[in-house]
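The step that takes the researchers longest sounds almost clerical: writing a folded protein down as plain text. Below is the pair of lines this work produces for a single protein:

——
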Amino acid sequence: MTNDELLDLIKKAKLEKWTKLDLSYNQISEIPPEIAQLHSLRILYLHNNQISEIPPEIAQLHSLEILDLHNNQISNIPPEIAQLHSLEQLYLYNNQISSIPPEIAQLHSLEQLYLYNNQISNIPPEIAQLHSLQELYLSNNQISNIPPEIAQLHSLEQLYLSNNQISNIPPEITQLHSLEQLYLSNNPLNPELQSIYEQGLKKLKIYLQSQQEKEIILNEVKLIFVGEGEVGKTSLLAALRGDEWIENRPTTHGVEIDIKSLILVDKESNTEITFNGWDFGGQNIYRYTHQMFFTTPAIYLAVWNPRRGPENCRVDEWIKMIKHRTYDEKQEDYQPRILVIATHGGLKERLDHIDEQLLRNEFDDLIVDFHHVDSYTTEGLEILENKLAKIATEMPMIRRSVPASWKIILDTIREKSQVNSWITYEQFLEICLYKKIDLALAKTYLTLLNELGYLIYYKHDPVLKDTIILKPEWLSKAISFVLESREVKNNFGLATHQQLSELWNDPKRGEDRYPEALHPIFCKLMERCDLSYQVELPDVDAPPTNLIAQLVPSQRPQHWENEWVLKSGDKELTEVCRITDVQTGRTEQAEGLIYRLIVRFHPYSLGRQNYNNSCHWKTGMLLDNGVEGRAFIEDRDGDIYITVRAAYPKGFLGYLSSEIMGLVKRFWKGLDPRLYIPCPTDTCQGLIEKDEIIESKQEEIPKVRCPVCRKFHKIDDLMAVNIITEEWNQNKLISILEKHRQEMIRMNQSMNNLDAQVNNLSTEIKTSMTVSNEKFNFLLNTLSDPAKDGPRLFHIEPINKNFFNLKNWIKEPFRITLWCEHSRLPLPMINNNDSSGVYEIELTREWFQKASPIIRVISTTLKLALPVAIPTVKINTDDTEYKAIAEQLEFGVKSTDSLLKGNDLLDKWGSKNDDWEYESSGSNSVQVIKASGSILRQLHHLLQQKDPSFGGLERVQNKRGDFLWVHPNYVQEY
C-alpha cells in the first residue's frame, strides 16, 4: 500500500466514522500523523508491516481500545501513548523495543500487554499502577530483575517471563492473589528456585512466603572430582581439606562416592565459601552410573596422572561426559566450570604434557584453567585453592538468598547424615515440627531436597514412601557391589533378590554391610534410576529376580529374526534419533542410553510375561505393544534407529521417538537430539531432518531433497500422511470402536494368549485403537503445563435441560466430572460411586465461551478414548453405563458448539485429514489447546473451592518429568 492510498483510506475512515481499521500484512513503513483524525476508531490493526516508529499523534485516538503493532520494526514506545485512556489491549510483540516507558502506568484500562520477543532489559516499577492488567507477556527479552512493585497488580492472572535472564523472584509475588499462570522456564534461576518452580505455582508460593519471614545468604558450591582410577582424586580432596597424607591410600570403590566438605576464603571479597566435594571412583564400568550424580552448577576437577599420560587418563572423555550431562546453552551463567588437574608429583616429574590448546579448542570456555598439584608436598595447592575460591565467587549461585528455615532444615539433614544413612518420613516431619516449620512448608522442602540431590525420597512409591535416604552416595556403593559381582555378570545381569541381599549384607564387607530391611528399597531405587527392573519368570515358584540392564548380552538373541516379521496388513515406518553436541553439531553418543531404554520400555518387552522371550542386547531391543505393533530399536554409531511395524505404525513410533528425545533432552543437557526420516531411495542411506520436512510442509512446499542422493521426495509420502485417509474422521473412529468394544474386552480378558488375540483383530480395529491412543497422548502432552496445578481431564454438562434453548444466559449451573489420566475413565466409574469426583458449579457465559474450544477438544478426545480404555483396565461396565457416559460427553460437545458457531478453530480436530499431522506446532488444534492453560487454572480454582482433593486424584510424575493426575489405584505405576 502506497502512502497516497493510505491517506485516502484514512480520509474515508474519518468521513464514515469507522470504529475498526485493519491495515495488517501490507508494506506500510510509516504511520502518517493524519491517523489522529480517526476519533471514532476503537480497533486498529497494523501488525505484520515494516513500521519503525509510532507517531506521537496516535495519542489523540481517545476511543482506541485495541492497538495491534506486532511483527514490525519498532524500537521505542512513545510516552504519548499514555494518553490512550480507553486502551484495553496493546500488542507490541516481535519488535525491537528496548525499554518500557514509565508513562505506560497511565493506561488504567489496559488489560492485556504483549511485549514478548523484544529487547527489553528492565520492567519499570511504575507498571504497578496498571490495576486493570490481567495478562502480561514479557517472554524472550533480556530482563534480569522482577521489581517487587509488581505485587500491586492485583488483577494480574497471567505473567509470562520465560527466556529472560532472571535469577531470583521477589517474595512479594505471593501477593498476586489472582495469579493463575506464571511462566519462568529457561531463566538462570538459582537451584532452589528452579527445582521448586518445576513443582508448580502452589509450591513456589509456599516457598516464597517463607522467604518473606527471614532470608539468609547461602555461599555453597558443589566440587566434583572425576577421572580414571588411581590418578589421585581422593588424595587431592584430602589435601584441600588439610587432612593428613596417607601413603598407599585405598582407591575409591566402584561407583562409591565419598562426599566431604571444605571451606575456602576468596581473598579479594573476603567471602567464605563451603565446597561440597564429591569424589567418584574411576573404573570404566561405572562411567554410565556416574552421570546420575553430575549436576549444574558445579565446579569439576578433571584429574589425571602425568606418569600415565593424558590419553591413558582419558581426560577428554571425562570432560566430554561432563559437558554432555550438564551443559545447557540456554543457561549461560549456570554452566559447569572445569579445571584440569595434573597430580602425583606433576611439578617435579612432568613425564607427559597435555595439549591445553587442543582441549580449549574442543571445549571452549568450559575449561577454566590447568593446574599441577602435588598432594603430598602440597606444592601448587595454594594456587589451586585461590583459583577455586575466585571461580566460586563469580558463580551466580553464590550469595543467593534462601528462606532461613530452608537453611535450618538443610543443616539439620546434613547433621543427621553424619550419624544415620536414612530416616523415616515421620522422623523428618518431627524434625520440622521441632524446628517450628509449617507442615506444608516442610513437605515442600522435602521435595526440594530430593530434587537438588541432598537426599532421596519418592512419596508415591509404596515401598519408598516411608523411607528417606540421607546419603545418595550410599546407594552408589550398593550399586557397585552388584555391578562387580562375577555371578551377576555371568548371568547377563539377572540377579535374584536373595543374591542381591547376599551382596549387600556380605559379612566380609565389614562396615560396608547394609541391613536387610533396606534391600527392597535399594531394588526400588535402582528401578527409579533406570538401572534395573523386576522380571517375570515362567516358573510360578521362581524367586523374585531383577535384570541389571548394564550387564545384558552383547549380541542379539538368536530368536530375534523369528520375532521381527512383517505381518499381513501391517505397514513399516522408521525414524532416526540423531544425537549431536549442542555447540559443535558433531554426532555424539549418549553414554548408557540403550541401558536406560531397556528399563524404561520393559512394559513393552517381548518377555514382559516370560523373561525368556525377551529380546534385548547392549545396542538394541525388540518391543511389542499389542495392537500398536512391534518396534525394533538399535544404536548404530550413536544414531538410534526406531522402526515400527503395525496396522497404524505412527502411533507407537511417535510415542517411542518422543520418549527417547525427551530422555536425552532431560538427562544429557549438552546433547541435542533430532529426528530424521530415512531416504526412501533403496540404495541411499541418507537421512532427512524431520523439522525441515515439517517446515517445508508449512510453507506448502510439496517435496524435500535428500542431502545424500540429492533426489526430491514427496513430503506426504515421507510423513506417511496417507496411512489415514480423509474418510477416517472422528465419527467413523467412534463407530468402529463402539462396534468392536466387546471384541476388545474379550481380547484383554485373554491375557495368556494375547498375541493370538491381537492377530485375530482386523486391521481396521487395530488402526482405530492406535489412533485413539495417539489422540489421547497428544492432548495430554500439549496440556502438560497446566497439569502442575490440577487435572486436565473432565467432562461437563449443563444441568438445565432447556440449556440449548437459552439465548443470552449470564450464569448457569453445570455438572463437572473428573477423569483419571492413567485409566482414561471417569471417577464415578472407577469408584463405582455416582457422586465421586462430580461437582455442580455455576459458570458464567463469559468463562464458558472462552473455555468452549478446549472443552470441545477434551470431550471429543475422551469419546475416542472411552471404548478403548474400558476393556484395557478390565472394569465391568454394562452398555447402559457406557452409553450414559458417552451421552454426557456428547452434551459437552453440543453445549460448546452452541457458542462456537462461526468459529472454525476446531474444525480440523475431528473431521479433516490434515489434523492428523500433530508434528506441526502451528496447527490450529495445537494453538487452541496451548492457549487454554489459564482457563484450566480458573477451573482448578473453582473445583478446589468445592473439593481441595480433586475427588481423591493424586498428582504423580512420570520419568519424563510430566505431571499426571491419577486415581490412587494407579499411583504405584509412577
